[in-house]
Backbone:
């Protein structure tokens, strides 16, 4: 709940929080009380008529070590897993239940939860009342890592969060910060660039390894034949582990951890780093996947330098996938909600690579691909978002020149000044730039000529002859409003075209899961000849690659291939939020895209997601969208502001 409030940064009702968390408003109030108890003499969350809002102290509440609830399910689960990991002969169910002061039935339930956490390489073996954990040492370490990740706040992967998570599962954490700093510095001296987003994750694995080795559970050997680069990193990891954790790692552990460093936090291709040569098969697979995504989404990414950089990243990704040594990305949720089209391009690339290379690719790994795609598009993007402006400043010495210089200096990345009017009575209606920055009052009721573009009050920003910080903020705000209006106006113009009569469901039932909802909405479009069964199945396959819950309220399932007869949207609104991936959504919009209407993809996809990214707009649409007509009326009203 605290993560939700921090991300929103504004007032949120108890009902909205309850919907997102899947609890009652009464539970929300109890959570607020518990969180505020973490901050002596102050509150992390303030309450008011509009609901709840995070205060500046909220972030500090995350870093306060709260006393664990004695006997809580999570505390019991950690204790049982720790006991299973420590005892080769396993544990006695009845003895463990007595030790934890719970019934044998409760402990059996906890064992069921533990089974759900186990990967393919771990099993619980049962012999009467005795249960033991069977599997490789690496698989057992991955289980510890998963428990630590589950302890961490969503989206947080700083060293403080890592320390709290490690201590919660009894992993030594006192030296994590110093170890990470020294590791990054040592890698720098060896000629590597470090991926800071994944560094904390690798430090966690090293701490787990040190803890296991201290208990006599070392790795006897490591995967693959080590080269000179891996040997150098292994030596550095061994020295730092001895210095900070007081544990001497054997050769197997040193080489294993060196492989993690090479494939997870070292940026491929760094000068002097001795990066491994690119596997031609991986390079070919990446090139084909990128070319297909570039053609399908009409994006400029099929450039040799981009393909080369992404191929080196994917080579490491393949190694991580085969070793099940996944790299966590704390920006996954942000990338998915803020850049849905970029993320979808990454999903397309990841899907093709998964098929071609035979490895699964998870959401966090897709997010890293999305960062590559976004970086490429940012470099090649035209200045379409730059707005033009005219300055109106009656001439007096060089005053207008000074003002233009100040505007360029303070707002040059947001707007481009293309004209300066120095007359006291300019022809206002002849000014055709996006914005008008004026030091004098414009006429209240301009009389535009038929051939001119009438000047709108929304385009005019009053500024001072000597630009102030307040002026800069007002101009920036006006530019942001205008850019948003332009983006959403494209969606506004296509509403009636895309939304299909008869393809609207109020009271959507998501109890049988995402695939059932996709088939329901897909059936509505199929009955009108817009899509066929293959498109529905393709949308389900896309959902399996990565959840399409792009905001806290909206899921947008769709196929990766644009095979619909025409672009159309089927909408379902749930009276109570439904589980969708790891989120809970109230609106599901199944979008069918056609090959002949590719330019519509970005318009519909990103702008529709943007509307539902604003909690107040989303709640308005959910409450008032009783049927398709009402939904479209409210959507138009939201877009028009």
Residues:
């Amino acid at each position: 709940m605290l993560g939700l409030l921090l991300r929103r940064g504004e007032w949120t009702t108890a009902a909205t929080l309850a919907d997102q968390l899947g609890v009652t408003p009464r539970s929300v109030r109890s959570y607020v009380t518990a969180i505020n108890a973490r901050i002596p003499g102050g509150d992390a969350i303030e309450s008011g008529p509009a609901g709840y809002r995070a205060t500046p102290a909220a972030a500090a509440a995350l870093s306060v070590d709260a006393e664990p609830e004695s006997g809580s399910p999570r505390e019991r689960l950690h204790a049982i897993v720790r006991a299973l990991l420590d005892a080769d002969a396993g544990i006695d169910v009845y003895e463990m239940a007595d030790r934890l002061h719970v019934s044998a039935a409760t402990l059996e339930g906890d064992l069921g939860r533990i089974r759900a956490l186990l990967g393919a390489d771990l099993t619980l073996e049962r012999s009467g009342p005795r249960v033991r954990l069977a599997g490789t040492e690496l698989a057992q370490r991955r289980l510890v890592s998963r428990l630590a990740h589950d302890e961490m706040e969503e989206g947080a992967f700083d060293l403080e969060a890592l320390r709290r998570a490690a201590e919660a599962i009894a992993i030594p954490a006192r030296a994590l910060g110093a170890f990470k700093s020294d590791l990054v510095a040592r890698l720098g001296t060896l000629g590597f660039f470090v991926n800071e987003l994944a560094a904390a994750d690798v430090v966690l694995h090293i701490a787990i390894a040190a803890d296991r080795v201290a208990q006599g559970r070392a790795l006897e050997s490591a995967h693959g034949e080590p080269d000179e680069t891996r040997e150098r990193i292994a030596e550095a990891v061994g020295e730092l582990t001895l210095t900070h954790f007081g544990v001497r790692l054997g050769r197997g552990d040193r080489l294993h951890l060196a492989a993690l460093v090479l494939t997870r936090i070292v940026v491929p291709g760094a000068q002097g780093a001795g990066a491994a040569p690119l596997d031609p098969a991986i390079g070919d697979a990446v090139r084909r996947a990128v070319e297909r995504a570039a053609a399908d989404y009409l994006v400029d990414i099929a450039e040799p330098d981009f393909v080369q950089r992404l191929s080196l990243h994917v080579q490491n990704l393949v190694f991580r996938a085969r070793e099940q040594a996944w790299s966590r990305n704390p920006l996954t949720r942000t990338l998915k909600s803020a850049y849905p089209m970029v993320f979808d391009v990454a999903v397309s690339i990841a899907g093709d690579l998964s098929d071609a290379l035979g490895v699964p690719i998870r959401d966090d790994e897709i997010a890293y691909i999305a960062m590559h795609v976004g970086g490429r598009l940012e470099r090649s993007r035209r200045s379409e978002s730059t707005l033009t402006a005219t300055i109106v400043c009656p001439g007096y010495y060089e005053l207008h020149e000074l003002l233009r210089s100040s505007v360029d200096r303070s707002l040059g990345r947001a707007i481009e000044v293309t004209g300066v009017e120095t007359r006291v009575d300019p022809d206002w209606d002849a000014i055709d730039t996006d914005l008008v920055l004026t030091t004098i009052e414009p006429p209240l009721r301009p009389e535009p000529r038929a051939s001119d573009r009438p000047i709108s009050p929304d385009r005019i920003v009053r500024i001072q002859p000597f630009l102030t910080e307040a002026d800069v903020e007002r101009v920036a705000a006006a530019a942001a409003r205008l850019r948003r209006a332009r983006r959403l106006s494209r969606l506004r113009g296509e509403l009636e075209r895309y939304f299909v009569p008869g393809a609207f469901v109020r009271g959507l039932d998501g109890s049988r899961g995402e695939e059932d909802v996709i088939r329901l909405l897909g059936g509505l479009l199929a009955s009108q000849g817009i899509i066929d069964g293959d498109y529905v199945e393709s949308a389900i396959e896309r959902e399996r690659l990565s959840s399409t819950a792009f905001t806290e309220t909206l899921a947008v399932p769709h196929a990766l291939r644009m095979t619909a007869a025409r672009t159309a949207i089927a909408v379902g609104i749930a009276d109570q939020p439904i589980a969708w991936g790891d989120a809970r959504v109230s609106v599901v919009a199944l979008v069918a895209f056609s090959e002949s209407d590719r330019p519509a993809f970005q318009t519909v996809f990103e702008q529709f997601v943007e509307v539902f990214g604003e909690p107040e707009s989303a709640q308005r649409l959910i409450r008032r969208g009783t049927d398709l007509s009402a939904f479209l009326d409210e959507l138009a009203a939201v877009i028009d502001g």
Remarks:
- The CA atoms of residues 305 and 376 lie 10 Å apart.
- The chain is about 55% helix and 15% strand.
- The longest strand covers residues 563-580.
